[in-house]
Amino acid sequence: MGSNQLLPDKDYLVRMENISKVFGTITALRDVNFGVERAEVRALLGDNGAGKSTLIKILMGVYQPTTGQIYFENKLVNITSPAQARAIGIEAVYQDLALVNLMSISRNFFLGREMTKNLGPITYLDIRKMNEVCKQSLHDIGIEIRSPNERVGSLSGGERQSIAIGRGVYFGAKLLILDEPTSALSVAETRKVLTYIENARERGLGVIFITHNVHHVYMVADSYTIIRHGMNVGTYYKGELSEDDIADLITGDRES
Amino acid sequence: MTIKAISIKEQTSWQYQVRHLVSHSPVIGPLAVFIIIFVLLSLFVDKFFTFRSVTGIINAATLSGVLTVGVTLLMIGGEFDLSVGSMLAVGGYIFGGLAMAGHPWLGAILALLGTGILGAINGLILVKTKIPSFIVTLGTRYFYRGMLWVISSGQMLQTVEKIPAYNLLNGRLDILNDILPGANFRTALIWLLLLVIGFQFVLTRTVFGNHVFAVGGNSGAAIGQGVNVNRVRVTLFVITGVLAGFAGILLFSQFTTVRVASGDGMELSAIASAVVGGTLITGGAGSVWGALVGVLTISMLRTGVVLMQIPFIPADNFEAIVGVTIILAVILNNWLRSRT
C-alpha cells in the first residue's frame, strides 16, 4: 500500500516510469512512477508547486522529461507536442484554456477539427451538421444544451467544463486530464461535473483529476497519487486512507 | 385558454429570438448607429438627402473601406496593423510607376505581391519576436514610408494620360449613374462589395475564419485544439497588406497621382471604422459587414459636418465629431453584447 512503484498485476493505459525533470538547478520531479488504468479515475494531488503540473505537462508533450519513459497502451511513446498527445488519445481540459468564450458551443466543439463540405473548389464549414452532431453527442453523454449556437461565454463554469469533457469523449480520447475542474464551481455544479466524469469512466476512459484539494476529488476517485517536493509520496487505492490522511500527506504533516 | 397559452409562448420565443439576434449579430448595433445618424442628418441638414451627397459618402468610403476589411479581419484575430497607410502608398507607387510605363496589369500584380510581402514581414516579426503587433507595425509604418521616400526621392507620381485600366479599376460607374440622376458612383464600389461579400464568407463559413475568431478570442484555447495560431496570424497580415496595396491601386486609378504621404492617417481611421462597425478591440468578435457600416458611418459624418457649415469650424475639421461617435458607438455595442 502506498508506494512510488507501479503494480505488476495492473494493465495500465499509460505508464510514466522513473520520470525526472530538471530546470537549470531546480529538480522539479525526481524519479516519479505514475500509471493510470482504463476506466479509472485517478486523483493527482499536491500543493501548489509540488510538481503535479510539471508531470502532466510532460505527459502532454509540453516538456520533455530529463530521464524516464512513457508507455501508452504498452507502447513506448515520445510525446513532443500537445497535438501529438491528442493524436494518440490524451485530451487535457484546462479551466481557462479549454474554450473560446466568444464563440458558439458547436464552433468550440469542432475547433481544429471542423466538418466541411465542398462546392467545386470552395471548401466551407458544414455548420448545420456540426450543430446536429454537437448537440446529439453531448446529449449522448448526458449533457443537455439549449442551442449549439449559444456562446460559451454565457454558460456557467460547470457547463463549460462539461462541454470540454464531452468534446474529449466524442473525439475518442482514451485518457482525459482535468485540471482543477471543480475548484471554481458551486456545489450543485460540482455534482454535475462529477457525474460527467463518472460517465467518462463508464465508457472506459482513464481520467486524471488534478487538484490541490482532496475534498474535491475524494468521492469520485478510485485511487490517489500524492506529489510533494517533486516526489511521488505514494499511490493509494480507495478505502486505504481517509480524506484527512490524504490531506496530511499533501502538506507533509504525515509521512507515508 | 389553449390559444392564449400558445400565443404567450410564441411571444416569449419571439422576444428570445430578437434578443438572441441583437446580442449575437455583430452588425445590428453598428447598423442602428448608422440609421440613427442617417435619419438625423437627413432631417436636419439641407442637401444631405440627395444622390449627390449619398454617392459622395459612398465614394469617399471605398478606399478606406478596402483598407478596413483587412484591418477588421486582423483585429478579430487579435492584432493591429498601423502600417496599412504606408503600404497603401507603396502599392500606389508600384502600380502607378509601371502603369505610366505602359504595364498597368503587371503593375497591379507586383503592387499586390509587394504589399503582401510587406504584410508577411509584419506577421513574421510578430510571431518570431513576440513583440505586440501594435509596436511592430508602428515601427514598420515609419520604415516602409521612409524607404518609399528614399526610393522615390520624395517625388510624387502624376500623369494626365488616361488608360482603360484606370477606368476598369476605379472609373465612373456610368451604368448606375445614368439611371440615378446626380449620382456619381465609381467602379471601386463594386470591388469593395465583392471584397466584403468574399471576406464575410471566409470569416464566418470557412475553417480559416473559425480559426481567426479562436486566435483572437483565446489563443491558448486555439493552441490547445491544435490550431496553428502563428500561421493564422501571418496569413492575416498578408491579407491586410494585399488589401492595402489594392487600395493604393484604386487611389492611383482614381486620381492618377500618388505622393509619399498618401494614405497617412488612414491606419487610425481604419481602426476607428472597424470599432464603430462592432469589432472588439481585444479581438475575437466582429464582422466584415459591420466594418462596411463603420466606414460608411464615418464617411457620412464627414459629409454631414461639411454640409452643416457650422460657423467658425473649418469644414474639414470633423475629427471631434468622429471621436465622440467612436466612443458612443463602442458604448452601445458593448451594451448590446452584454444583453444575452
Walk me through what this model shows.
The complex is a heterodimer of chains A (256) and B (340). With 256 residues, chain A is an alpha/beta fold. In chain A, 28% of the residues lie in helices and 29% in strands. Chain A folds into two domains: 1-89 and 174-181 and 203-256, P-loop containing nucleotide triphosphate hydrolases (Rossmann fold, 3-Layer(aba) Sandwich), CATH 3.40.50.300; 95-173, no CATH class. Chain A contains seven helices and twelve strands. In chain A, helix 6 links the parallel strand 9 and strand 10. The termini of chain A are close together. The model of chain A has no long low-confidence stretch (mean pLDDT 90). With 340 residues, chain B is an all-alpha fold. Chain B has a single domain, classed as ABC transporter involved in vitamin B12 uptake, BtuC (Orthogonal Bundle). Chain B contains 15 helices and two strands. Chain B has a two-stranded antiparallel ribbon. Chain B is globular. The chains are: A alpha/beta (256), B mainly alpha (340). The A-B interface holds A 82-83, 86, 92, 94, 96-103, 107-108, 110-114, 116, 123-125, 127, 149, 151, 153-154 and B 24, 201, 205-207, 210-211, 213-214, 217-218, 220-227, 280, 284-285, 340.
Question: Brief overview, please?
Answer:
The complex is a heterodimer of chains A (256) and B (340). Chain A is an alpha/beta fold and 256 residues long.
Q: Label the overall shape of chain A.
A: globular
Distance between the termini of chain A: 10 Å
The CATH class assignment of chain B is: Mainly Alpha
Low-confidence runs of at least 5 consecutive residues of chain B: 1-11
Percent helix range of chain B: over 70%
Poorly predicted residue ranges of chain A: none
Q: Find the CATH superfamily of the largest domain in chain A.
A: P-loop containing nucleotide triphosphate hydrolases
**Spatial shape of chain B:** globular
Largest sheet of chain A, in brief, is: 6 strands, mixed
**Radius of gyration from the alpha-carbon trace of chain B, in angstroms:** 21 Å
Q: What is the CATH architecture term of the largest domain in chain A? A: 3-Layer(aba) Sandwich
What oligomeric state is this? heterodimer
Integer count of domains of chain B: 1
Helix-strand makeup class of chain A: alpha/beta
Number of strands of chain B: 2
Strand coverage percent of chain B: under 5%
**Average pLDDT for all residues of chain A:** 90
Spatial order of the strands in the main sheet of chain A?
Answer: 6-9-10-3-11-12
The overall number of domains of chain A is 2
